[in-house]
Design goal:
Oligomer: single chain
Distance between the termini: 26 Å
Largest sheet: none
Radius of gyration: 20 Å
Number of strands: 0
Shape: globular
Length: about 425
């Protein structure tokens, strides 16, 4: 069982790790080419860009859970229907979202804090990303579906190809051709194109093909997918919602240098968040299948391994983060003022890393075992607490209140996770 479990977990971890690299590599190259304005522009635009990836991940994970539960219960017909309807949802969802962001992206960016010189920079980045919006939704949504079919290693390879090409293209477009934000956006889209090509190649094979009759929308199937999808969508997108309000408050209490510093800190903790989410989502097929079969012994064992890995990586990441904090400003090319903020706030964000090892796998565990109420409470409760703390704490603590918002929220969620798991 351990070998089977690791066969799912490590490719998933690496896939999410590569997703984390996607989210930080643009910032590294743009920061070196443009400094604080480039970093701030990407960080302000990122909540809108992240909607694309989160939509695909939410639908893909939601469908994967339903497929595994039906397979575990022996209902292969419903499982096949869920697989097909996931493709329908990915297509229609990507069209609606891309069109909405294209039409209303500029006012949204303004509301998110992109004013004066930052607005055209953020708009350029967003518009070019949207040109490949449908591609990115399918690439992020098909990876969990492939992993759910036992093709975890292949899914990892698809992600790896896109990530490596993104890094190389970022270097060429941003630093060599000096395309700045335009180059970063083009590199991201082209990297996702390569990932999608491998995803399509997987489904072209006869044994993996999805019948057209299963793609035809079925109301009950769609609703069951969307019900579960709310949690993985929220889990993936929540950091971007947090970024919105953290940017606004950092700008208010610390100026552009504080926004630039938070951009770097957000990149680092998102890296750990995706890594531990990879542990949780990698265990999803086995947890869902065991739940569907009613195999409580296997479910308990897989759960124990999942939380042990998550907590272990969270603690290790927190320690490393604190030890290398003095190197981060030079690595990202920030100004001295932003660098000072990064070094000062690192211990608070290291605590966030440690707590992620518990809270993120817990959410994955709950929706994988179809306890969608608990997973939704954790996901959307996090949003509610963040909105409360980000406006209240700075009133008493100034900029320190901004830095300590996320640690405070994660501490409360950690207590809730323990109570839910004990129950």
């Amino acid at each position: 069982m351990r070998k089977k479990y690791m066969g799912y977990i490590f490719p998933s971890m690496l896939s999410f790790l590569l997703t984390g690299i996607y989210s930080i590599v643009d910032g590294i190259f743009v920061g070196r080419a443009m400094g604080d304005p480039g970093l701030a522009a990407i960080n302000i635009a990122w909540p809108l860009v992240a909607l694309i990836i989160s939509l695909g991940t939410g639908i893909g994970m939601g469908a994967a859970v339903i497929v595994s539960l039906n397979n575990g219960a022996g209902d292969e017909k419903k499982a096949a229907k869920s697989d097909g309807n996931a493709l329908f949802l990915l297509f229609t969802g990507s069209l609606i979202l891309t069109l909405a962001l294209w039409l209303f992206g500029t006012p949204f960016l303004w509301l998110l804090g992109a004013k004066d010189a930052l607005l055209p920079l953020a708009r350029t980045y967003l518009r070019l990303i949207l040109l490949g919006g449908i591609i990115q939704v399918f690439a992020s949504g098909m990876v969990p579906l492939m992993r759910n079919r036992g093709a975890s290693f292949y899914a990892m390879c698809a992600m790896a190809l896109g990530c490596i090409s993104n890094i190389l293209l970022d270097y060429f477009f941003v630093l060599v051709l000096d395309l700045k934000l335009m180059g970063a956006a083009l590199a991201t889209v082209l990297g996702q194109v390569l990932t999608l090509i491998l995803c399509i190649a997987f489904y072209v094979k006869k044994k993996n093909r999805i019948a057209f009759s299963n793609i035809r929308p079925d109301k009950r199937t769609i609703l069951s997918i969307l019900k579960v999808a709310l949690s993985p969508f929220g889990l993936t997108y929540l950091p971007s919602v947090t970024i919105i309000f953290m940017n606004l408050q950092a700008l208010k209490y610390g100026g552009e240098e504080a926004v630039s510093a938070y951009a770097v800190l957000a990149y680092i903790i998102s890296f750990m968040e995706l890594l531990v989410q990879g542990i949780g989502d990698g265990s999803q097929p086995l947890l869902s299948l065991s739940q569907g079969k009613g195999d409580k012994q296997s479910l308990k064992l897989y759960t124990k391994w999942t939380f042990s890995l998550g907590i272990g990586f969270g603690l290790m990441g927190a320690i490393i983060f604190v030890l290398v904090r003095n190197l981060l400003p030079a690595f990202y090319g920030t100004s001295p003022g932003a660098g000072a903020y990064i070094i000062y706030a690192t211990p608070a964000f290291a605590l966030v890393m440690a707590l992620y090892g518990l809270t993120k796998p817990a959410v994955s565990y709950f929706y994988a075992t179809h306890r969608v109420v608990r997973s939704s409470l954790l996901v959307y409760g996090e949003i509610a607490l963040t909105l409360l703390f980000i406006f209240v704490l700075p009133l008493f603590m100034g900029l320190d209140g901004v830095w300590y918002t996320i640690p405070s929220v994660q501490a409360i969620l950690g207590i809730c996770c323990i109570l839910f798991l004990r129950k």
